[in-house]
Amino acid sequence: MSHSPDQSDQPRRSFMVQAAAAGTGAIAGVVPACIGAAYFLDPLLRSKATADSSTPVGEMGEGFLPITKLESLPSDGTPRAFKVIADLQDAWNKFPQTEIGSVYLSRSESGEISCFNARCPHLGCTVQYKDGDQKYVCPCHDSAFNVDGTRNNEIPPRDLDTLEVKKDDSGTVWVKFQKFRAGTSEKKPV
Ligand code: FES
Fold first, then answer.
1. Per-residue pLDDT averaged across 185-189, rounded?
2. What does the alpha-carbon distance between residue 41 and residue 91 come to, in Å, rounded to a whole number?
């Protein structure tokens, strides 16, 4: 007995419809997964090629950041305070022109430039230079430092933290800005 072509093709057609549906479903699932993976992985990959989390990007390299012009520093050694501004970048975002700390710069009569991180090595408050007393004092627990950065009393565990300084041909003063662990006698970068 002959059977109609429609009846014999039905199982095969049904199988093909199911296979097509399964394939479409798989593609629909895989594509968003790939997009999602790329979204999450790309910033991570980029972070390896650019900078560590919240790393300042110095134009001179080696972490040096432009702070001021030489002529803004008194030539008699009186320290001046400056904010340190940097473009930061982590794995996800850029933070342009962000204040990351402050420093004191001074220029001696012989032209030598010195720099201290303004962060108190006791517990991390910001020290202030008192012109009249010619010393740095910390408003938090009364640490005091001489104008050359050495301790003036026994409260801080070490002297003020010195930072590397460079001057370029245009007269811009650059500082290699670093933070150091507070509360220890050793100067350890953090
Ligand atoms: S943080 Fe400066 S004296 Fe304590």
1. 97
2. 10
